[in-house]
Design goal:
By secondary structure, this protein is of the alpha/beta class. The chain has helices at about 15-20, 80-90, 95-110, 115-130, 150-160, 170-175, 180-185; strands at about 1-5, 25-30, 40-45, 50-55, 135-140, 165, 190, 200, 205. Helices cover about 35% and strands about 20% of the residues. The strands form 3 sheets. A 5-stranded parallel sheet has the order 5-2-1-6-7. The protein has a two-stranded antiparallel sheet with strand order 3-4. α3 packs antiparallel against α4 (about 115-130). The longest helix is centred in the middle third of the chain and has 16 residues, at about 95-110.
């Protein structure tokens, strides 16, 4: 059983979906600490003048050490501003008409929960549907597993009877020092190697602007 685990991020890059597609089970790690101004709450789109951030406003005053699942969005109409930015800058992109109204509905439904995790996960699952990715998905908040960092990852993998853990390459710095935890649990560790495709875009011909 091959498993990958990653935080639910906002409008993630293509490599995120490649990671999901390579495994049997994918776990949204929504029980770790929220990092303000990280990919958990924002990402970039491409404008004629260059990249620009779309940032989900969240309630942080008086909320220290929140986990991702505890974070609430603020400003219930923020998604309309994000949609307007996407529409203005991508309306002439191929397939815009095929997906924009569906994207609007996902945003609208997700915003009712006022949950950042719910917003991100609903968007990711919708993108997976479009891409034909059928990997089973879980949320760490539903799995009742304890531990910090690699210990938590091992416990999540063991609860799913995993014998292989596929990690994003960016986690190798700290994960390589904890490989003994995985080997003791008889879980092999591999690292994703994803090469982003090049394709024609509006404004310039270059790589997709969503980055890890």
């Amino acid at each position: 059983m091959k498993v990958a685990i990653s935080q639910p991020t906002y409008l993630p890059w293509l490599g995120y979906f490649d990671l999901i597609d390579q495994v049997d089970i994918f776990v949204f790690l929504d029980t770790v600490q929220f990092e303000k101004r990280s990919w958990q709450q924002r990402n970039r789109i491409k404008l004629p003048t260059g990249p620009s951030f779309l940032t989900v406003p969240v309630a942080v005053k008086g909320h220290f050490d929140q986990t991702i699942i505890e974070v609430e969005t603020s400003g219930p109409q923020f998604w309309k501003t994000h949609l307007r930015s996407i529409e203005m800058n991508y309306r002439r992109a191929p397939f815009f008409e095929s997906y924009f109204e569906k994207l609007r509905k996902v945003f609208q439904i997700s915003s009712d929960s006022h949950s950042l995790a719910e917003l991100n996960i609903r968007l990711i699952r919708w993108f997976c549907e479009i891409l034909g990715i059928k990997t089973a998905v879980y949320r760490s908040s539903e799995m009742d597993q304890a531990g910090c960092r690699s210990e938590l990852l091992v416990n999540l993998c063991r609860s799913l009877s995993a014998d292989y853990y596929l990690s994003p390459l960016g986690s190798a710095i700290y994960l390589c020092g904890d490989l003994r935890l995985f080997s003791d649990a008889r879980i092999e560790v591999g690292f994703q190697h994803y090469e982003h495709p090049e394709y024609r875009q509006l404004f310039h011909h270059s790589l997709l602007i969503f980055l890890p």
